[in-house]
Amino acid sequence: MDDALAQDGVLRYELLVLYLRQLLSGRDYAIVNPIAGQMANFAYLVGDKDNGECYVVDPAWDPRGLIQIAEEDGMKVVGGIATHCHPDHVGGNMMGFPIQGVAELVELAKVKVWVHEEDAAELRRGTGLKPEDLCIVRGGDTLPVGDQTFEFIHTPGHTPGGLCLLVGNGVITGDTLFVGACGRVDLPGADPRKMFESLTVTLRALPDDLVVYPGHDYGRTPKSTIGAETRHNPFMQPDADAGGTFLE
Ligand SMILES: [Zn+2]
Questions:
Q1: What is the tens place of the pLDDT at every residue in 13-58?
Q2: Span from the CA of 107 to the centroid of ligand 1 (angstroms)
Q3: Which CA distances in Å does 142 have to 123, 150, 162, 167?
Q4: How many other β-carbons are positioned within 10 Å of the β-carbon of residue 75?
Q5: From the CB of residue 247, how many other CB atoms can be counted at a distance below 10 Å?
Q6: Are 54 and 81 in contact (CB under 8 A)?
Q7: 175 CA to middle of ligand 1, Å?
Q8: What separation in Å is there between the alpha carbon of 192 and the centre of ligand 1?
Q9: How far, in Å, is the centroid of ligand 1 from the Cα of 86?
Q10: What are phi and psi of 54, to 5 degrees?
């Protein structure tokens, strides 16, 4: 891959300025927390390598550790992004277990948290954040970071305000799309019909070569591509039986 990049100055330039770290709970952060390890959450640091600013996507379990990883890379955390409102992604209370997350990130890094308008109330209820701690977004909104511009895609279904985030040549998909699977649609706030549309219309329309960065390490590989998922993921087939299983 390095050879290919060396032959293509534009691509090499893009990859050099985009800062993107995929971090696994229990392995890369929250290392001493066995529940974090079992949950296999991915958090992401995304930003602009040149100006040194980044966002933490889904900073649950160990916000201090995630900030530290960014700092060790010479990056400053300038915000948090919630793909959705569940405690294993943003902190709060999960079946009686307190989980650190966006509230501690706001406190430690003095930043705000970006969340879709339809998940904002639930995020506040679960984490105790105040309205002034949040930046409310809708699908199509963009987030500039240095020379980078990220874009929010509204993908409801797992929760009403589920977000995917376009970053460079990748898309962070939260619990909407996993490698070979998708998020649950049987929890409060879930909507199987909207999930089916998010997967088979909204995400299917993205470019095949876009890299998929999921919210959990549940697949055969930690990441994939839109092309591979549209071919092999049963939940992305618009006319397959998998569609029926959503709607039962
Ligand atoms: Zn979730």
A1: 555 589 999 999 999 999 999 999 999 999 999 999 999 999 999 9
A2: 23
A3: 21, 6, 16, 10
A4: 22
A5: 10
A6: no
A7: 5
A8: 14
A9: 5
A10: -145, 165
Q: How many residues are given for the chain?
A: 248
Give the H/E segment covering residue 152. Answer: strand 148-154
Domain ranges of the chain: 2-247
Encoded tokens for 237: 């087939």
Tell which CATH classification among 3.20.20.150, 3.60.15.10, 3.40.50.300, 1.10.3470.10 matches the domain 2-247: 3.60.15.10
User: What are 188-203's pLDDT values in tens digits?
Assistant: 999 999 999 999 999 9
Please give the torsion angle defined by the CA atoms of residues 168, 29, 133 and 169, in that order, rounded to the nearest 10 degrees.
10
Q: Which residues pair with 85 in a beta bridge?
A: none
